[in-house]
Amino acid sequence: MAEPGRTLKSLLDALDESVHGLMAAPRGLGAVVRSVTVVDDDGPLPVGTLAVVPGEEADALADRNPEGVAAVAVTGVPDGGAERLRALGLPVLSVDPRLTGKEFADLVRAVLETPGDEPRHRDLFSLAQTVATLTGGLVSIEDSAGAVLAYSAADEGADELRRRTILGRGCPESFLAHLRAWGVNERLAAGEVVEVAERPDLGAERRLVVGVLAGGRMLGGIWVQIGDAPRPAATTRVLLGAARLAATHLMRTHGARSGGDPAELAVGLLTGAFDTDALARHLGADPGTPVSVIALALREEAGQGGWLLDRATETASVYAASYRSDALVIPACGLLYLLMPAPSGNPAPASWVRDLVTALRQNLGTPVQAALAGVAPRMSAVPSLKKVASRTLDVVRDRPELTVTSFEEVRSSVVLRELIDDLAERPHLRDVRLDGLDEEQCRSLAVYLDTFGDVTRAAELLHVHPNTLRHRIRRIRTLTGLDLDDADQRLLASLTLRARR
Questions:
Q1: At what angle do helices 439-450 and 487-500 cross, to 10 degrees?
Q2: Parallel, antiparallel, or unpaired: how do β-strands 335-341 and 328-332 relate?
């Protein structure tokens, strides 16, 4: 079952007049609210919560730097703390003064407990903010008539056209006429990313726009105000991917696709617990097409998992959609899995995956790592490669410099990890003679075996004199009866010692 939650935009729509105003939204309205907490002490606040605080205590809350909080709702008359909360990147809501904090929290809780119809990771406000982050511009998503559907945070630098479009909920007719005269709509219908030159007389800085298309039909467009700033190399890819995601969202919103949350259903492709072929077809994938399996580990700190995984899913979805329109991005078990159809049987390029990991590292601030598990010949073979991918990420956990690793590069380590896990579950397969050794003896024997009996090298690694190591090895032989001249005994001893680490 999906974890309950709504984007801040959805929550504001549902609460209606209970929210007196939006005091700050420095990162837009895409944050996912999963719970509500009335702040009445200095106790920890849950990740993803909407913190309800009296205005006179907003400053104290800002002092706590409440990481992981989705947003803050201020009751009564706010003090200077509201501005400080904004500086922390938190959206700040002003509650209807007729409501107490508890009354407002009860309303929020009722909304959160009511099943919503917004798809996870596909809220247009969240998508707009993701595109803004990846392109460095100011983003708006509009329908085919120019009406604004969503927009990124309106930070400093917004031109007159953007302000008029957002405040008026639609693009001014004078600018629409300019687009028609310049043939922009025809180029958008052809799938181009179009650069629109600045028009000072219309209050417009330089922009990029891509059409949101479905079956040759124009559903809308994604606009990015970029001004004179140089555009990031991945901007075109980001916009094309975002347009595909926006098209999926708009079609689903209008009822063209139904039948459950795609993110939830797609998890079934990883587990193999359901009819894989039928599930793949329902999600728009060909079950008989080879699929490249990629896993991403965010390597986040404790307590960041939920909201950070949401942000990573949105970014990965944009990148994946730009590469393959039928790609699937599936958050599961704390990891992010990408299923990239590969009709030719070739895996997704490592360079493309490396670009994605670089973008995630920059935007999440964590040492994200990716594992290329290989290509499943058909969708039903994905669960086995899913295990390979997660195993590969386990092996490279302590090597953050490895941003992208293929299973083939660490096959020996992965297989060895499997054997060691089997030994842990079946203790009778271990060399029980080693159980009586202390930690120093175990380490000395392990290093001695790892260096193929090279006493000089092993002593260097252990920082002891070679004669000291020779004495320890003789003592270990006496205590255990281990014959280190026997290859089988050496191998079993090495595996047993690794299982103890």
A1: 130
A2: antiparallel
DSSP designation for 330: E
> What digits encode the pLDDT tens for the residues 97-134?
778 888 888 888 877 776 554 443 347 888 888 898 88
Residue 379 CA from chain centroid, whole number:
23
In this prediction, residue 468 carries a pLDDT of 93
The confidence score (pLDDT) of residue 292 equals: 93
- Each residue's pLDDT tens digit, 327-352: 889 888 889 999 999 888 888 888 89
Q: Judge contact between 11 and 108, C-beta under 8 A.
A: yes
**Is the separation of the CB atoms in 221 and 210 below 8 Å?**
yes
2 CB-near residues (< 8 Å, 6+ apart):
120, 261, 263, 264
Provide mean pLDDT across the span 37-41.
Answer: 87
What average pLDDT does the segment 269-276 reach? 74
pLDDT, tens only, 155-195:
568 888 888 887 776 778 888 888 888 888 889 988 899 99
Nearest CA among 216, 162, 225 for reference residue 191 = 216
Q: How confident is the model at residue 252 (pLDDT cuts 50, 70, 90)?
A: low
CA 6 to chain centre: 17
Closest CA to 235 of 204, 189, 194, 176: 194
In whole angstroms, how far apart are CA 480 and each of 89, 454, 485, 498? 61, 21, 14, 17
Residue in this structure with the two tokens 């202390």, named with its chain if needed = 438
Two tokens at 455?
């006493």
Long-range CB contacts (< 8 A, 24+ apart) of 269-274? 269/328, 269/330, 269/339, 269/379, 269/382, 269/383, 270/330, 270/332, 270/337, 270/382, 270/383, 270/386, 271/383, 272/380, 272/382, 272/383
Please report where in the chains the tokens 């090895």 appear, as a residue: 473
Picking from 212, 29, 245, 221, the residue whose alpha carbon sits closest to that of residue 142 is 221
Helices (H), 81-218: 81-87, 101-113, 124-135, 160-167, 173-182, 184-189
Q: List the structure tokens of 286.
A: 């060909």
Give residue 75's pLDDT.
87
| Residue 456 CB coordination number (10 Å) | 9
| First CA to last CA distance, the chain | 36
Q: What is the CA radius of gyration of the chain?
A: 28
Q: How far apart are CA 81 and CA 129, in angstroms?
A: 25
Task: Report, as an integer, the average pLDDT of 475-501.
Answer: 86
